[in-house]
Amino acid sequence: MKTKILYVEDEPFLGRIVKESLESRELDVHMVMDGLAVLPELEQFLPDLCVLDVMLPNLDGFSVAKEIRQRYPHLPILFLTAKTQVEDVVQGFGVGGNDYLRKPFSMEELIVRIDNLLRMNKNQSFAPVRNTQAIYLGNYEFWPQKFELRLNDQTRKLSHRENELLKILAENRHQTISRKDMLMRVWGDDSFFNSRNLDVYITRLREYIREDPKLQLVTIKGIGYHFITD
Hints:
This protein has helices at residues 12-23, 38-45, 61-71, 86-94, 107-120, 160-171, 179-186, 192-208, and strands spanning 4-8, 28-32, 49-53, 77-81, 99-102, 135-137, 140-143, 148-151, 154-157, 176-178, 216-220, 224-228. By secondary structure, it is α/β, with parallel strands linked by helices.
């Protein structure tokens, strides 16, 4: 079975060259060009290593690495970046990077670093960490890994986007969350069409939590939403 590499790079020309070069060495390479798309693609592809550019659209590489590390504690992460400041190197390792390669780089050096990381981590399990804990929202139990919202002996199955939106609201309870942030995290862009979809999903979530009057999903006009849970 080929070693699987998730390659995250937003420069199409460089990305194509690197991807083809890695594939010529019998590696299975899946390329992603947007920071927000990394985690969903990672969960589908289940790579052996992630090669991650720092400067990415919508979500930078350092933020992406933090999310990866929470779910996949042992997955090797190799940063690629044009940044040269020591502070950037320190930040890269601080958020969970295993190695750091500055642009421009040679393919030979990239291959050596990939091989080294794979060799160092060959006995590790890259399986995701599953959070099986319930999040308590008033009288409700929210089980994000099971896509379930429970009240007493009743269980409602949530769609993927309902689940993601409720998770964002739960993580930011008693804070105002902008519509744009929610749209970018769940849909990947804040187009008019997706904005109207968000309105529909918010209406559904309000209906789902209506049995507990302590829960309030308040619209802050022109800004976003404020989720009150007690």
